[in-house]
Amino acid sequence: MYKLIKQEGRAKRGEFHTVHGVIQTPVFMNVGTVAAIKGAVSTQDLYEIKTQVELSNTYHLHVRTGDKLIKQFGGLHKFMVWNKPILTDSGGFQVFSLAGLRKIKEEGVYFNSHIDGHKIFMGPEESMQIQSNLASTIAMAFDECPSSVAERKYIQASVERTTRWLHRCKKEMSRLNALEDTINKKQMLFGINQGGTFEDIRIEHAKIISELDMDGYAIGGLAVGESHSEMYRIIEETVPYLPVDKPTYLMGVGTPANILEAVERGVDFFDCVYPSRNGRHGHLYTRKGKINLFNVKYELDEKPIEEGCQCPACRTYSRAYIRHLLKAKEMLGMRLCVLHNLYFYNTMMEEIRQALDEGRFIEYKKAKLEGFLENDKPNITSF
């Protein structure tokens, strides 16, 4: 159940009550594709860096280790020793990302595994069955994420098929939740809005799926090649046609600036691989923008990544030491950088929620964005 606490313009401050605890929104979900965040981040670390929701990937867990094995362990929560909410995506994004390895039909999608090439079929029912085996808190409907450069005719047909698949997902989820051996009989299901950058298709699809009374609604198919301004335009046009009394999830987005802009437009849930991926390459988020620890100017820098930060890296280690670890290809360097970036994101979401609570989000957003630009200002002494 979603409780809308207050709004500032379109920005929403809410609570989402689940069988695995209450999620304070807006929230950034930390991406652990195969039930672990890349960079040697443990489940215990997730608690320390203020993670509310962990996100895992249906397709990847199905092809490697297997959802049936995970069910034997009692589901993902017991398997990875995590007692807070987990969201599993549906495998639909792999329809987009593995374009060279799949064929889309009305019944579902035929894949060749990216690991060993063996044939896989996944449709709405199969995706729901896998996610039920994983016993996640929130399951995502199976959809197609069309390319941002696809023609209008293709996107229209794709969206219509995604709607038909959503009906099948909802029916199958209801059946699975009623079975005796289902681990999480209160598993929730989010529908996904698609439509590329065609706002009229997006709006019509939002209207149609809103009538299905899902547990939440996602906006998919963005951050896949379109410009930031196009993305913001689509969010702005689409969100008003999704239920305000249900969570709205912007899939796969994004940078801290993207998140601030989307919160202002009414988005509650976010996920993105940026903080962990960038961390593994020494690119770190700070209040003044991103820094690259591989730069030689940090070689003798005794300061933490960010002064005042309470993440496990900043409480103990210097930029110079972490840079040394990265240069030496020592895994600890990657781990510390990923922990810092995820802590930065989770802390920023805390600040956003507090600003909304206090009715000063727009003021907070403006100051935050101005701060991010500080490292990008030209150094006039070098001219």
From TrEMBL:
It catalyses: 7-aminomethyl-7-carbaguanine + guanosine(34) in tRNA = 7-aminomethyl-7-carbaguanosine(34) in tRNA + guanine. Residues 252-258 are annotated as: RNA binding. Belongs to the queuine tRNA-ribosyltransferase family. Homodimer. Within each dimer, one monomer is responsible for RNA recognition and catalysis, while the other monomer binds to the replacement base PreQ1. The gene is tgt. Residues 10-369 form the tRNA-guanine(15) transglycosylase-like domain. InterPro entries: ArchSynthase1/Queuine_TRR, TGT, TGT-like_sf, tRNA_ribo_trans-like. Binds 1 zinc ion per subunit. PANTHER family: QUEUINE TRNA-RIBOSYLTRANSFERASE. It holds the Pfam family TGT. Keywords: Glycosyltransferase, Metal-binding, Queuosine biosynthesis, Transferase, tRNA processing, Zinc. Its cofactor is Zn(2+). This is Queuine tRNA-ribosyltransferase. Substrate binds at residues 89-93, 143, 194, 221. GO terms for cellular component: cytosol. One of its GO terms (molecular function) is metal ion binding. Pathway: tRNA modification; tRNA-queuosine biosynthesis.
